[in-house]
Structures are given as structure tokens and as C-alpha cells.
TrEMBL record, chain A:
The lineage of its organism: Eukaryota, Viridiplantae, Streptophyta, Embryophyta, Tracheophyta. Component of the general transcription and DNA repair factor IIH (TFIIH) core complex, which is involved in general and transcription-coupled nucleotide excision repair (NER) of damaged DNA and, when complexed to CAK, in RNA transcription by RNA polymerase II. In NER, TFIIH acts by opening DNA around the lesion to allow the excision of the damaged oligonucleotide and its replacement by a new DNA fragment. In transcription, TFIIH has an essential role in transcription initiation. Coiled coil: none annotated. Component of the 7-subunit TFIIH core complex composed of XPB, XPD, TFB1/GTF2H1, GTF2H2/P44, TFB4/GTF2H3, TFB2/GTF2H4 and TFB5/GTF2H5, which is active in NER. The core complex associates with the 3-subunit CDK-activating kinase (CAK) module composed of CYCH1/cyclin H1, CDKD and MAT1/At4g30820 to form the 10-subunit holoenzyme (holo-TFIIH) active in transcription. GO terms for cellular component: transcription factor TFIIH core complex; transcription factor TFIIH holo complex. This is General transcription and DNA repair factor IIH subunit TFB4. One of its GO terms (biological process) is regulation of DNA-templated transcription. Keywords: DNA damage, DNA repair, Metal-binding, Nucleus, Transcription, Transcription regulation, Zinc, Zinc-finger. It comes from Linum tenue. GO terms for molecular function: zinc ion binding. It is found in: Nucleus.
TrEMBL record, chain B:
This is General transcription factor IIH subunit. Pfam families: C1_4 (PF07975), Ssl1 (PF04056). It is found in: Nucleus. Residues 1-37 are annotated as: Disordered. It comes from Linum tenue. Its main location: nucleus. The keyword Cell membrane does not apply.
Length: 352, 424
């Protein structure tokens, strides 16, 4: 059910044409900047005393093998959140995630968290627990972490909207978020942690994604996945959208992470706490959800249908479902040596 | 560091003997001690421990030079790369391979690095195949057949291979020519020879063999471990390969790994073809079948050939019964970054950075400060030509060597309207 005033849409014959940026997908209608107050009323306050953990953190030098660095990629794509028909709206989702982040911090004083937001037009860092500027203490009804992250998220969504306002409008049926951007940023951050010395926590990436896969990002996402596989960084995913995401299933399978699509989204925090809160070393002792059947079949370039037998161009590796005479991607003529083909083209051009 | 230490030790021993003999006209290795005085570059920190020498800047400038040379050759005219490669690695196990100038012996060093090379090769070229050939006692033998599985080759290398006798380049080339003659026409034929000897004992005219290889479109490259030889140089020039001589173990590893990414392919070398390939599905959990590779009953994991429904254990492979090449889409995706490479970043000096007046002086991707530690001035950094974001030097190296995505460009959304506006 769409919220009043959430999207202005004109149903044209054919795909849904979204012309304006969906406003107030974060909040109940006619209230901006009220995120903190609403959040306060709708969630359980998990207690104070967060500040004292921060002080003790830096005095310990050695890292045992159950210390983790968790990079969380949060999907803030408004085109998904305003149209999602499931029982979870954006600020319930954020409340589950914030309590989960607090859990990670409490499990070990040395755990580090980095939060990166995946928007529709841009991606940015939201929170880094190891930065001095992000250490917040404070009194109040909410723990300081929550209000800090919420404020930064709101600033990010405003920035995302401003960048989107310059565009004339999209005609995509399903608008995807910029997952490849935030994955690349997460991997660069993890490389920086690797460079910092022999003592570092074990990094992993958790992707909280709901938007559908954007096929234009396939090559970039696969590059990021292979780089993560090389650096041995698992990519976990908790998918809150409607249909399974093939890209993220492949990512978890190739890098050795866990892919979960929760059946009951009201209990999202339970899925996060039981599956994703545990560090990498202890995962071998748990029974984690197994991949139900990752589909590695390719889709052909001409019809975008999945095929299980096809033809591959030996020059550019494009996949076709039927035999062609010429490759549409690289222009190579099949069956002839390239020089002959080039001279044929020149001859034809000079004749015409 | 290793290299300079080794040279220093050797140099000091020789210096004592030859000091009396040569008074003037210093050799290059002597000049490195008197003029450069590399020991003065060592520094101690406040607790008396040696500080590592900052070779970050040197590393980055070497990396950029390599990148410039690569991009200069490929950017000129979209040169194709041979993605489906059939490579024969020829290892010279003559008496010269038992020399101890590489510790513990040349043969052990070669075996270690060829194993790393094979893994890297299959990582970058999943659809390609490797075959191993050894030269011993003047005769060339094939150690493993052309195959796509790294484990078989590495297992064959780990066996204790003795070295003896003479080395024969012509016999090796004949064997490789016969092996690579049978492969399909769309594959690129390559030979990599790791040559330690300083001579070759051939039964016939090696120049004829070289011409035969050239006509068969074999691209032969040689990595020498002792000294430069004319016959190797001639072979590489004729066939279009590269000839390098390794100075020490680190340099040898670098030269070997340079052959892992696909080389630029000359258009007439391979005929473009549509290869029929199958994309098998994973077998259902708990299903029992006899796998075609091990001839044993296996439960669960495995793949089913779409044409003949035989079960195979791993991909990529060729189905034993119907001959269909079986791959999965990530294998093809591993090669896409060779086809869509990212542009090298431009280097920004400290002065340009200060003039640019950027809001945040941190690297866009890792958020590390771009200012040199301890001061307020900006260190060297790199910027992307398309998205104009600034990156630190380490991220620059990581992005171009491993990630192949620019985080700045990936974090922007370009609408079709804007894209066509920039093109026109």
C-alpha cells in the first residue's frame, strides 16, 4: 500500500514511469526531521552505559581470533522502500539494524563497525567506530550511537535526493541501488585495515539489501566479488526484498559467506543476531543456513533469458543462444581470420 | 632488500681479492657502494629499533611506470587480448638447473614459482589450459597433458625431479609444436620457456624449427636464468614473444607473473569462433550418482551436463561423454575486466592538491587522510579522470591491480540522457 504523497506516479501503458523523487519514504507523511522523535516512541531503548565501553577499547593490544571488523552496507534506495509491500518499512528496518549494531559492539570491546549507505544516486560512509570524530557520548533517552547514525542517515538521504533532482526522470521498471559502489568502497577500506599492521580484526562484509539487481552493474559486482575472494573477505547478505537476488547469492557462494532471505521480516533482528553476529572463527561451530540452490546459469545477451547451453564468442566472451554469423558486441566475423574480415569490410566500403 | 643484501655480501668478498688488482676504473657494483652508500639510508626511531625504509614512493613510481607502458600500448588501438589460451610451460632440467645461485637451487626456485604462476594463471584465465614439458638429458618429455585443472599440474611438479644432462631447445620446440597443433583454431597458442642453460644441443637446424613455429603461429617467450642468449632472443623476436633474463629470485617471480594476464593478441593469430558451451546446474542435495571423472558414487554436490546428463565434480571441465565444454558464468566473468579495463588515474602533486580546494582531505574510498602524517601538507595522491575523486596511492594500486572498479565512478548514477550528452 503506497503512502499518501509518497510517490507521484503516472501509469502509462507499459512500465511504471516514476517521475518525481519519492519523498518522505522514511517518515510518516507530513513530518520531516521527526525521525528521532518517532524512533524513540516506536522502539525499545536498549540501555545506557555505551559510553564506558569506548574508553576501555584502546588499552588492549592483542587481538584474539574472535574479533571482527564488520562493514555493513545499508540499502536506502527510496524507490524500493516506498514501494515495498512487505510488513517492514524503512524506519522499522533501521531500528532492527541499530539494535544489531549495538549487539556487535557489546560482544567484544575490540569489535569495529563501519556503516556505508547504498543510495540510488550515490554511496557514502555513515559511521566508523574507529574514528575519533565518530566517538560520541551523551545522555538522553537514546544511546548516542543511535542518534548519531540516524542523523547521518538523514543527511545522506537528503544528499541522495538532491543529486537525483537534477535528472529528468527514470523509465526503469525496477530501480536498483548502487551496490557496486558501496562494495568497492568497503573493499578499499578493508585493504586499508590489512595494511595497518599484523594485528587487525578479521574483516567481513554484511549486505542489507532490498533493491533488485541492476543488470548494468553485473561486471562491476563480479569484479568486486573476485577481489573479495582473493582477499578472503566473506560477503554475507540478508535480503529483505521480494524475489531472490542472483548477484548476492553468487557473492555469498563464491566468497564463502551466508545468504539469508528472512521469511518473517518482523523478526529481522532475530535473524541478524543469530546468523550474522557471530565472528568468523566461531562460525565453524554453528549450523548456518545453507544455500538452497545457487543458479550459475548464464543469460544470453540477445534475449536476456537464462540458458543452459549456448554459444560463446571466443574474442569477447559474449553469450548467445543461437548461432550467429557476426558477434554483436565486438564485431568479429565468425569462421574467418580477422584480417580477411577486415579487408572484406574495406572492400565493401570502397565499393559502395 | 634481499637483492641488495646478497649483492653486498658477494661484493665484499670479491672486493678484498680484487682491490689490489683494480685500482681505477671502478665497476658498477663498486660504484653502488662508494657513491650511493645505501647503508646511510637506515634510520632508528626513538627506541633504537630500525625503521623500515620508506619504499612506498619507489614502489608507487615503479607501478605507475608499468601502468603507463601497458596503457600506452593498449589504448592506441583497442588491441584485443587472447582470452582463450593454450600455454605450454617448458622447464629446463639440464645440469645447469642444479646451480645454487638461486637458493636452494634453481630447480627448487623454479618449481615453487611455477606453482604460484599456475594458480594465478587459472585465476585470470579460467577457460585456458596449461601443459608442462621438461627437458632432461637432451630429450624433451611431456610431464602433463594440456588440461584445465591446476591440481593435476601442481601434483606433477611436486615430485622430485632430478636435473642432469644437456638442454635441447629444438627438441622442446618440436614437442610443443606437435602438442599445440591439435588445438582448435580459436585458441591462442603460447609457449613459455624457463631456460637455465647457456647452450643448446640440437639434432638438426634450430632455425628451421623456429620458422616452423612462426608459421604455426606459436608465440614463444623465454625467461632466462643465467645470461642472455642469441638463439632465445631470435626465437622471441621471430614469434612475437618476450625475452627477459631474471636477476634474482624476486625479479624472476615478477617476470613469471607478468605472463599470467592475457597478452595483446595479433588479429591474425586466432580465428574468431562461436564455441558451444554448457552451463550446468548444481545437482540436487542428496542425489546419488556416479561421477564421470572419478568413477565413484557420490552424494549431493556436483554438476549435471545439460546435454548428456552425466555428473561432473568441478567446473570448468569438458564432459567426458559428449565433449561439451562446461563452465559457469563466474568463470566467464573473471575475464571481463580484461575487456573493460579502467583508465589509469592521473597523479596529483602536493601543490596541485592544495590548489584544488577539496572539501575533505581524505581518500574517497578508504577515508584515509591524504595529508602526510605529522604535517598539514598534502602528500601525493591520484585522481580519476572521469569522476574527479581523489584516492590515496595504496588504493590506486589496489584498484588497478585487483579490484578493476573505480569506487568513484561506481558511486555515481549516469542516466542515459546525461551519458549521451557527454558523448555528443
Amino acid at each position: 500500500m503506497l503512502k499518501e504523497g509518497a510517490i507521484e506516479s503516472r501509469l502509462v501503458a507499459g512500465p511504471l514511469v516514476v517521475t518525481t523523487w519519492p519523498r518522505s519514504f522514511l517518515l510518516p507523511p507530513h513530518s520531516r526531521g521527526k525521525l528521532l522523535r518517532d524512533f524513540n516512541q516506536s522502539t525499545v531503548v536498549v540501555g545506557h552505559g555505551y559510553a564506558s565501553f569506548q574508553a576501555n577499547r584502546r588499552s588492549l593490544i592483542s587481538f584474539s581470533d574472535d574479533v571482527s571488523l564488520l562493514v555493513v552496507l545499508i540499502d536506502t534506495n527510496p524507490f524500493f522502500w516506498s514501494t515495498s509491500s512487505s510488513s517492514l518499512n524503512f524506519h522499522q528496518f533501521v531500528s532492527h539494524v541499530l539494535v544489531f549494531l549495538d549487539l556487535i559492539v557489546r560482544l567484544s570491546q575490540l569489535n569495529q563497525i563501519v556503516v556505508i549507505a547504498t543510495g540510488h544516486n550515490t554511496c557514502d560512509y555513515i559511521y566508523d567506530s574507529s574514528l575519533d570524530t565518530d566517538q560520541v557520548t551523551g545522555e538522553g533517552e537514546l544511546p548516542a550511537l543511535y542518534s548519531f547514525v540516524l542523523q547521518r542517515l538523514e543527511e545522506f538521504v537528503d544528499k541522495d535526493e538532491k543529486l537525483g533532482a537534477k535528472q529528468e526522470g527514470l523509465s526503469e521498471k525496477r530501480a536498483s541501488s548502487l551496490l557496486s559502489g558501496s562494495l568497492s568502497m568497503a573493499l578499499c577500506y578493508i585493504q586499508r585495515v590489512f595494511r595497518s599492521g599484523p594485528l587487525h580484526p578479521q574483516p567481513r562484509i554484511l549486505c542489507l539489501q532490498g533493491s533488485p539487481d541492476g543488470s548494468e552493474q553485473y561486471v562491476s559486482i563480479m569484479n568486486a566479488i573476485f577481489s573479495a575472494q582473493r582477499s578472503m573477505v566473506p560477503i554475507d547478505c540478508c535480503y529483505v526484498g521480494s524475489h531472490n537476488s542472483a548477484f548476492l547469492q553468487q557473492a555469498s557462494y563464491i566468497t564463502g559467506g551466508v545468504y539469508v532471505k528472512p521469511q518473517h521480516l518482523e523478526g529481522l533482528y532475530q535473524y541478524l543476531a543469530t546468523v550474522f553476529a557471530v565472528d568468523l572463527h566461531s562460525r565453524s561451530f554453528l549450523q548456518l543456513p545453507r544455500p538452497a540452490g545457487v543458479d550459475f546459469r548464464a543469460s544470453c545477451f540477445c534475449h536476456k533469458t537464462t540458458i543452459d547451453m549456448g554459444y560463446v564468442c571466443s574474442v569477447c566472451l559474449s553469450i548467445f543462444c543461437k548461432h550467429h554469423d557476426k558477434c554483436s558486441t565486438c564485431g568479429s566475423v565468425f569462421g574467418k581470420a580477422q584480417l580477411d574480415a577486415a579487408s572484406d569490410r574495406k572492400r565493401k566500403a570502397s565499393e559502395s | 632488500m634481499n637483492n641488495s643484501e646478497k649483492k653486498r655480501m658477494n661484493g665484499e668478498a670479491e672486493e678484498e681479492n680484487e682491490e689490489d688488482v683494480e685500482d681505477e676504473g671502478r665497476d658498477a657494483w663498486e660504484r653502488t657502494y662508494t657513491d650511493e652508500r645505501s647503508w646511510e639510508a637506515l634510520e632508528e626511531d626513538e627506541s633504537g629499533l630500525l625503521q623500515p625504509i620508506d619504499n612506498k614512493a619507489i614502489y608507487h613510481s615503479q607501478y605507475r611506470r608499468r601502468l603507463q607502458s601497458l596503457s600506452a600500448t593498449s589504448a592506441a588501438s583497442r588491441i584485443q587480448k587472447g582470452l582463450i589460451r593454450f600455454l605450454c610451460v617448458v622447464v629446463d632440467l639440464s645440469k645447469a638447473a642444479g646451480e645454487m645461485d638461486f637458493k636452494p637451487s634453481r630447480m627448487a626456485v623454479i618449481a615453487k614459482h611455477v606453482e604460484a604462476f599456475i594458480r594465478e594463471f587459472f585465476d585470470q584465465n579460467p577457460l585456458s589450459q596449461i601443459g608442462l614439458v621438461i627437458i632432461k638429458d637432451g630429450v624433451a618429455q611431456s610431464l602433463t597433458e594440456l588440461g584445465g585443472s591446476p591440481e593435476a599440474h601442481i601434483k606433477a611438479l611436486m615430485v622430485k625431479l632430478g636435473c642432469a644432462g644437456d638442454s635441447s631447445l629444438q627438441n622442446a620446440l618440436e614437442l610443443v609444436h606437435d602438442t599445440l597443433h591439435k588445438i582448435p583454431s580459436y585458441g591462442h597458442r603460447e609457449v613459455l620457456i624457463l631456460y637455465s642453460a647457456l647452450s643448446t644441443c640440437d639434432p638438426g637446424d634450430i632455425m628451421e624449427t623456429i620458422q616452423k613455429c612462426k608459421k604455426a603461429k606459436l608465440r614463444c617467450s623465454v625467461i632466462g636464468l643465467s645470461a642472455e642468449m642469441f638463439v632465445c632472443k631470435h626465437l622471441c623476436q621471430e614469434t612475437g614473444g618476450s625475452y627477459m633474463v631474471a636477476l634474482d629470485e624476486g625479479h624472476f617471480k615478477e617476470l613469471l607473473l607478468e605472463h599470467a594476464p592475457p597478452p595483446p593478441a595479433l588479429a591474425e593469430f586466432a580465428i574468431a569462433n562461436l564455441i558451444k558451451m554448457g552451463f550446468p546446474q548444481r545437482a540436487a542435495e542428496g542425489s546419488i550418482a556416479i561421477c564421470s571423472c572419478h568413477r565413484e558414487a557420490k552424494v549431493g554436490e556436483g554438476y549435471i551436463c545439460p546435454r548428456c546428463k552425466a555428473r561432473v565434480c568441478e567446473l570448468p571441465t569438458e564432459c567426458r561423454f559428449c565433449g561439451l565444454t562446461l563452465v559457469s558464468s563466474p568463470h566467464l566473468a573473471r575475464s571481463y575486466h580484461h575487456l573493460f579495463p579502467i583508465e589509469p588515474f592521473t597523479e596529483i602533486s602536493a601543490r596541485q592538491f592544495e590548489l584544488s580546494r577539496v572539501a575533505s582531505k581524505t581518500c574517497f574510498s578508504c577515508r584515509e587522510s591524504l595529508l602526510t602524517p605529522g604535517t598539514n601538507k598534502a602528500g601525493p595522491c591520484a585522481a580519476c579522470t572521469k569522476c574527479k575523486q581523489y584516492f590515496c596511492l595504496d588504493c590506486d594500486i589496489y584498484i588497478h591491480e585487483s579490484l578493476h572498479n573505480c569506487p568513484g565512478c561506481e558511486s555515481r548514477r549516469i542516466t542515459p540522457a546525461a551519458a549521451s550528452a557527454t558523448k555528443s
